[in-house]
Structure formats: C-alpha cells, structure tokens
Amino acid sequence: MEQQKKGIIFLIGFMGCGKSTKAKQLAQRLSCPVIDLDDEIVKAAGQSITDYFAAHGEAGFRILERETLHEFAYPETCVVATGGGLPCFFDNMDWINLHGKSVYLKMEPAQLVSRLQKREKRPLIKDMDDPTLLQFIEQKLGEREPFYSQATYILNAFDLSAEELEKTVFP
Ligand SMILES: Nc1ncnc2c1ncn2[C@@H]1O[C@H](COP(=O)(O)OP(=O)(O)O)[C@@H](O)[C@H]1O
Ligand SMILES: O=C(O)C1=C[C@@H](OP(=O)(O)O)[C@@H](O)[C@H](O)C1
Ligand SMILES: [Mg+2]
Prior knowledge:
Layout: E1 8-12, H1 19-30, E2 34-36, H2 37-45, H3 49-71, E3 78-81, H4 92-99, E4 101-106, H5 109-115, H6 130-148, E5 153-156, H7 162-169
Parallel strand pairs: 1-3, 1-4, 2-3, 4-5
The structure holds adenosine-5'-diphosphate, shikimate-3-phosphate and magnesium ion.
Protein name: Shikimate kinase
GO cellular component, one term: cytosol
GO molecular function: ATP binding; magnesium ion binding; shikimate kinase activity
C-alpha cells in the first residue's frame, strides 16, 4: 500500500534554480495545492516585487516576506516555492524546518546565469549584464549557502525531474 504523502514541502535556493517551476510540477504529482510566496507577497502588497522594493527598499521587503511566510494559512499538505533570499533572513530557515520538510535546489553559478535571462521581475539583478550577474551570484551564494545547507534535503537541481524530487521527499 502506498504511504501517505502529507505535510508541507518548502523549496529553497538561489534565484533561477527552478523553485517556482518545480513547486508546480511536484504539487501536480501529489495532487495538492502549490503556494508561491512571491505571488502571495504581490497579493498582500497590491504591487509587484520590483515596485515594492522601489518603495520600501530590500529591508521593507524582507519584513513583508517574513510576515507572509509566518502568517499564510497553509493547507495540511502543499508545496511552497519560497523567494531566493527568504531562508537567509530572521528566523525563517528555522521556521521552515519546524513546519515542514525543505529541499535546497542547488545549482552552479553559471547554470543560474543561463536560467536568469529574464531578469526584469527580480529587482536585485534586473539591471545586470551576464558577467556582472555571475560575479554577484558567486558572492551572494557564498553568503546564502550556510542557510540553504540547513535544508532537510539537498538536490542537484539542473537536470532534476519532478519524479526524482517526489522520491526524495517521500522515499
Ligand atoms: N528544467 C528547466 N529547463 C529549462 N528552463 C527552466 C527549467 N526549469 C525552470 N526553467 C526556467 O528557468 C527560469 C527560472 O525558473 P523559476 O522556476 O522562476 O526559478 P526560481 O523560482 O527558483 O527563481 C524560468 O525562466 C523558467 O522558465
Ligand atoms: O533572491 C532574492 O533575494 C529574491 C528572489 C526572488 O524570488 P525567486 O528566487 O523566485 O526569483 C524574489 O523573492 C525577490 O526578487 C528577491
Ligand atoms: Mg520563484
């Protein structure tokens, strides 16, 4: 008999690693809701992430991001795509691991650049050319890795299938 697949699965990792895309695919496989916290922030703020950054700065965004993570009414079983910076601020990573299982979708900086060709919706990188973005990722990933590494599972994300992701979280 198939084991019950329940609980909250949080996908974490750098911008462009595929959290939003893979969260939808995994939720479809599990027949459960998908929540993209960036979309919830846009709904709560009534403006785009780029406009929110422009009006309130990154610090203001991080406060709203934490509030959205903590206060969302999660169904018992769901897949949650987080924003790339979310695990690295306040107590967010501890909160995630207390409330569900987390998966770090790990990718090399050059692979991330190739996935980040559309940058206009990502205020931190929207005006960068490819070489500047690569440098930015190498530095930021170094700062963020200690947080991402606290995930329940760490997966190489470049060629990851949704099936493999499901088998990891529900072995
Ligand atoms: N398996 C894949 N192959 C090629 N491109 C992908 C794949 N998964 C995602 N992408 C693309 O990579 C970009 C980043 O994906 P996204 O899911 O938005 O990442 P994140 O939410 O982690 O920032 C998007 O343009 C998306 O269409
Ligand atoms: O890495 C970051 O600090 C951010 C990542 C974005 O989400 P994605 O990782 O889905 O692009 C979004 O939350 C915001 O632009 C800030
Ligand atoms: Mg996303």
